[in-house]
Specification:
It contains ten helices and 21 strands. By secondary structure, it is α/β, with parallel strands linked by helices. The strands form five sheets. The chain has a nine-stranded mixed β-sheet with strand order 4-3-5-6-7-8-9-14-13, with helices on both faces. Strands 10-11-12-15 form a four-stranded antiparallel β-sheet. Helix 1 crosses helix 2, helix 6 packs across helix 7 and helix 7 packs parallel to helix 8. It is globular and about 65 Å long.
Length: about 425
């Protein structure tokens, strides 16, 4: 794989500023953001008043922990535009969640918000090794989902040439990668596996493609999956993080030269880690739930938003800004099976460590009697695999690594449903 480290002179000065400079800027912007939200959003005024707090009570970064959290239900209760802090006619873009699990959450952007969003995504793409003039194959979904259009915004800001292919129509994905020869691809890791399958179906070695870097996000994925993708494509695989409630993709980014966690763009987003149960801050470096406060957003400021993503904060390395460890799961995706906490990424790690199995799987939960049961559906890597032996091996790997007994079904290649966006890992039939 090529060295894609971006030249130091191309970085924004704040990326390599001192911690004192970063924290001084954060405090200044945090005071503005709290006052902006309190003044213009009824929900925040009511929440702050109920807690006996005013934005002027924030005198240090540590004081933010006194302020109330924002949760997804607060956004749903304010549907559609109740959380906007500017008049509707100043909102230049609206995105929303799918609403498949409840009322959609709606977010908005002013012209300045779009400029900042483009800036942090451009910074992220550059950290991945992309440079002005490079060709980017953008396979994130376009539409109300923030992924496709958010990446496109940053690609324009960086000066890339963008192929806005979106998700789906996998044969065309492979054809355009082959014909157009992009340097980078932005895609969910699960859909990247579908693209790999299509390369194999066409009899084309993906290692011969032009791709030098894949920028993967929108769902948790393991370092074992990173290794699988890097070896299959002979390219770098780096992680990008974001969520629509905070801005979309570009909240944090893994730097291609280190691949040791995602640097948070702390000049725009203030991170905290709290205990998922109590909500209390945890010591620096300990695992917990990620919480974000926006520092520059005008249309949709977000204060202490509980993401439900589990990670920890670490000092900066390639950049001065702090890193978040790769997200391995969400507190609301955690499966409690007979008293043991299980995340889909743990099953993925076991699968990747079992010879003869492809990296596609789903987890089915049932309750035929008093006890919950888990079945892992996966598939053989090829037709020569002894599926019974592979099933026993994976079951043993899960028992040894996680401490639970599960049923394993190993089906023929191509049997597990493929994702064209975020993977559906859990089917809950309890």
């Amino acid at each position: 794989m090529k060295d894609l480290t971006p030249p130091k002179h191309t970085l924004d000065p704040i990326e390599i500023a001192s911690r004192d400079e970063i924290e001084a800027l954060q405090l200044e912007r945090l005071k503005w953001s709290l006052l902006h939200a309190y003044t213009h959003v009824p929900h925040y005024r009511a929440a702050f008043d109920a807690a006996g707090l005013h934005p002027h009570d924030l005198r240090s970064l540590a004081d933010l922990a006194k302020f109330p959290f924002t949760v997804k239900q607060d956004l749903r209760a304010s549907y559609p535009f109740g959380m906007f802090a500017v008049p509707r006619d100043q909102v230049k873009r609206i995105h929303a969640s799918s609403g498949t699990t409840g009322q959609p959450t709606v977010v908005g952007y002013t012209e300045n918000d779009l400029k900042h969003w483009g800036g942090v995504v451009a910074r992220s793409l550059r950290a991945a090794g992309m440079q002005p003039g490079d060709l980017l194959h953008n396979a994130y979904g376009y539409g109300l989902f923030t992924g496709g259009l958010g990446i496109h915004l940053g690609a324009d800001a960086l000066g890339l040439t963008t192929i806005p292919i979106s998700g789906g129509m996998t044969p065309r994905q492979v054809r355009l990668i082959t014909d157009f020869e992009p340097k980078g691809i932005t895609v969910t890791p699960s859909y990247a596996l579908s693209i790999l399958d299509e390369f194999a179906a066409k009899g084309v070695d993906p290692r011969t493609s032009s791709l030098e870097v894949g920028i993967f996000g929108a769902e948790p994925w393991t370092n074992a999956m990173r290794h699988e993708i890097e070896q299959a494509f002979d390219m770098h695989a780096v992680d990008i993080y974001g969520l629509s409630e905070v801005i979309g993709p570009g909240v944090s980014m893994e730097c291609v030269e280190t691949k040791d966690g995602l640097h948070i763009w702390e000049d725009h987003f203030f991170p905290e880690i709290v205990d998922p149960v109590s909500g209390d801050p945890v010591p620096e470096g300990e695992m917990g739930e990620l919480v974000f406060t926006s520092l520059t957003k005008e249309a949709f400021p977000i204060i202490r938003y509980r993401t439900r993503d589990l990670t920890r904060l670490l000092p900066g390395t390639a950049r001065s800004m702090r890193r978040m460890e790769k997200v391995t799961g969400r507190s609301d995706d955690m499966i409690i099976l007979r008293g043991v906490n299980v995340f889909p990424t743990q099953i993925e790690e076991c699968l990747m460590a079992t010879p003869g199995l492809a990296p596609h799987f789903q987890i089915e939960l049932t309750k035929p009697s008093r006890m919950d049961q888990m079945r892992v559906l996966c598939e053989a890597a090829d037709g020569s695999v002894d599926t019974a032996l592979a099933a026993n091996a994976l079951g043993g790997q899960i028992k040894q690594s996680i401490g639970i007994s599960v049923a394993v079904d190993v089906a023929a290649p191509g049997s597990v449903a493929r994702s064209q966006g975020k993977a559906v890992r859990i089917i809950d039939n309890r």
